[in-house]
Design a protein that fits this description.
mainly alpha; single chain; disordered C terminus
Amino acid sequence: IPEVLLQERGGRARWHGIPVLLRRLYEHSQPNGDLVQAHVVLKELSPLLSSEAMSFVTEDRKSAQESTFPNTYTFDLFGGVDLLVEILMRPTLTTEKKPQMSDDLIKDCLSVLYNCCICSEGVTKSLASRSDFVLFLFTLMTNKKTFLQTATLIEDILGVKKEMINLEAIPNLAGLVQSFDQQQLANFCRILSVTISEPDLGHDDKHTLLAKNAQQRRNGSPSQAEVNQVTILNIPGFIERLCRLATRKVSEATGASDFLQELEDWYTWLDNALVLDALMQMATAEAEHSSAESSDESVLAASPLRQRLPQSMKVVHEIMYKVEVLYVLCVLLMGRQRNQVHRMLAEFRLIPGLNNLFDKLIWRKFTSSNHVLHGQNQNCDCSPEISFKIQFLRLLQSFSDHHENKYLLLNVQELNELSAISLKANIPEVEALVNTDRSLACDGKKGLLTRLLTVMKKEPPDSSFRFWQARAVESFLRGATSYADQVFLLKRGLLEHILFCIIDSGCKSRDVLQSYFDLLGELMKFNIDAFQRFNKYVNTEEKFQTFLTQINSSLVDSNMLVRCIVLSLDRFESQTDDMRVMEMLSECLLLSYLARVENRLSFLFRLINIINENVSCLNTSLVILMVARRRGELPSYLRALREKEYAERYPGCLLNNFHQLLRFWQRHYLNKDKDSTCLENSSCIPFSYWKETVSVLLNLDRASPCAIASYIDPAYMELDQELMDD
């Protein structure tokens, strides 16, 4: 297009000379062109685009439309994005001798592309579709001067890329990662988090039986995320460096300013990782000669430029790094290589290191959190302080869940206390406790679990932190029930705290209440001491009715507690020679309530009605029926369900649905999966008895008194065709 025409049309269309500048950039950037002049032209273009990007960052993103950014649109329309990609990649596309591109030119090309991505999702998706360009960007990360711009652009691109990138395709990935200093490694974790995380199914779908079955069908071969996890675990020294990053201390110059307020103010402006890191890069430029692995940052603290930055900004910078590192470690702990990761985290003393940071950094202040709960996606919109606490709690949950390394959350004195509890109760110590390497446990006056309990009790009633705190503590108790673990927590007032939250605090958050119900169930299961403490706290009919109201208000949330009470009652009723147990059975309002068959049937009917929402509800229903079967009462329970159907004028509806869900249960649990072991450990009922009970219930012989089919009139039978074929 003639330049005269571009200038004339551009004046009316307000193109601000962008097409003309792009034409000159193209000419100067050709193989025989002048890259110095090309850079001059790019510097003219850059402010036109960066101003739009900055307005996007500082204004409400949700209300921003691409039409609001005409310069970015014009730049892309006239081929600016494709031209910059071509300029960057040209050295890799020709073997001819070519002039060396300066670092500054590369940085400016990357910055312009990033600004375009900020303002136009279409640009980001276009770049993401070019796998050759994405892989090429990783090679630019070897240059420290261009690392920051490269990392930020990659992060944006991977965020919209439809197919997950294969890390093994990155040239010399191990060498690349090993070349990073600690700051670069922390930034690289932002990229890794996208490449090793499974796509989120959504909060509501994760626990449904259908979703679990669909997930299991995909588990036949490793996903790309799982392959990527193995790839990074095989990089020498990678996990050790992450542990050092997660546990290093922040250099803290004392200041009188309000830390939290300053942190929130800075975060409002520094919502963009590139802006934050660019400022910190400027501030640390004079200290590049210092050790990249320095943990106390004493040399950096002496830099005059660094001292111009608010103290809270240094802290938020470190916190944002740790959020990314903890997220990556958390994902790895939940992956197929979990045992390998556990061994490495224990060896590199991650837990003792976090324990030493707890009071000084992790929970140095109580932060109000009225946010909704955050899922596994690390890209939430909360402040760094809140993100950091949530990722820390999620890490503890993943670390403790069904793993013997959970005892590393205690210090040596607390480990000795567990041994003493077992000795006093005349029961053997659990094998995991005996095998714990005490040199890898927490040091100091308190272990990490005890510190967590302390702050948990101080949280406001509806704080979303309570949800994650309760989940972390519950994970310590999950698995095979340990009397010593329960008593350790009972002695620290945990049961009374939970009951206060449920009954007396006025807590309305369903998520918090659910986490407390689950924790209470694990704390009380099979433990006569816990039921005695419960009875002492819930000592009036009014309190007991309040407690029941909370349970009944959402059985989906409280079903795990109901399951634990039914299991405990079943065990206690078999211990009639123990006077303590007999007294408790007669005195405890909770046990007396669940001992009545009509109350169990009420729970069973409601649980079967809501099973579609939650796999846990199905298993709780089965526990009630297994206990009934063991006592020879299964036919009477099924008759009661049939009578309830007719009373509700929906004959066959409930039992047909239950029959179908039990078929799904078989498909899900009869595959080789840890879920079956979890069921057995948590219920103390052999998995063979679970399978037998389901088979009995699904028997098609209408003469069987324990088969669901016997209680559905032929006119209302809706057994699926697949079952009939079988």
